């Protein structure tokens, strides 16, 4: 296990991922970086509810694009409107992105912990902290 990243320490993140094993791996990675996983949503409906909850203090999000046949873009749009940065983590890579999110930070699955950590530092290093 690596030492927690000072840049990411205490960063409060939402994870939207429908595959339980992958969600657990992401949680473990984020924990090793010093991040706090605020909640995990395995469905679009739960992801939307969490993204809409302005009392939920989140600094950023990790979003899988395909959630059991539904796409996560409504969650991403709500987060974007709130000014909450996010990263798409998907097995489809950039080729699977909606044109509306073509410039969004994207990490292709499978990825190594170092790749996720570097992307988080780049995208959320200066994120507003709660």
Quick summary:
The protein has 130 residues and is an alpha/beta fold.
Description:
There is one protein chain. It is built from four helices and seven strands, in the order βαβαβββαββα. It has 130 residues and is α/β, with parallel strands linked by helices. The chain has one domain: Rossmann fold. The strands form two sheets. It has a five-stranded parallel β-sheet with strand order 2-1-3-6-7, with helices on both faces. Strands 4-5 form a two-stranded antiparallel ribbon. Strand 1, helix 1 and strand 2 form a beta-alpha-beta unit. The longest helix is centred in the first third of the chain and has 13 residues.
Order of helices and strands: EHEHEEEHEEH
Q: Characterize the largest beta sheet: strand count, sense, and whether it forms a barrel.
A: 5 strands, parallel
Strand order, largest beta sheet: 2-1-3-6-7
What do we call the CATH homologous superfamily?
Response regulator
Number of strand segments: 7
Average predicted confidence as pLDDT:
92
What would the principal axes of the Cα set say about the shape?
Answer: globular
Which consecutive residue ranges, at least 5 long each, have pLDDT under 50?
Answer: none
Number of helical runs? 4
CATH topology: Rossmann fold
Structural class: alpha/beta
Percentage beta strand: 15-25%
Number of domains: 1
CATH architecture: 3-Layer(aba) Sandwich
Keywords: Phosphoprotein
Modified residues (4-aspartylphosphate): 64
Protein name: Response regulator
InterPro entries: Bact_response_regulator (IPR050595), CheY-like_superfamily (IPR011006), Sig_transdc_resp-reg_receiver (IPR001789)
């Amino acid at each position: 296990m690596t030492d927690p990243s000072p840049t990411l320490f205490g960063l409060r993140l939402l994870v939207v991922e429908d595959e339980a094993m992958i969600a657990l791996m992401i949680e473990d990675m984020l924990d090793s970086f010093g991040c706090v996983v605020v909640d995990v949503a395995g469905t679009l409906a739960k992801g939307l509810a969490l993204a809409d909850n302005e009392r939920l203090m989140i600094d950023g999000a990790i979003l899988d694009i395909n959630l059991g046949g539904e796409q996560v873009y409504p969650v991403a749009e709500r987060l974007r409107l709130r000014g909450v940065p996010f990263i798409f983590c998907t097995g489809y890579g950039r080729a699977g992105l909606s044109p509306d999110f073509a410039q969004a930070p994207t990490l292709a699955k499978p990825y190594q912990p170092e790749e996720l950590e570097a992307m988080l530092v780049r995208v959320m290093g200066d994120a507003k902290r709660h």
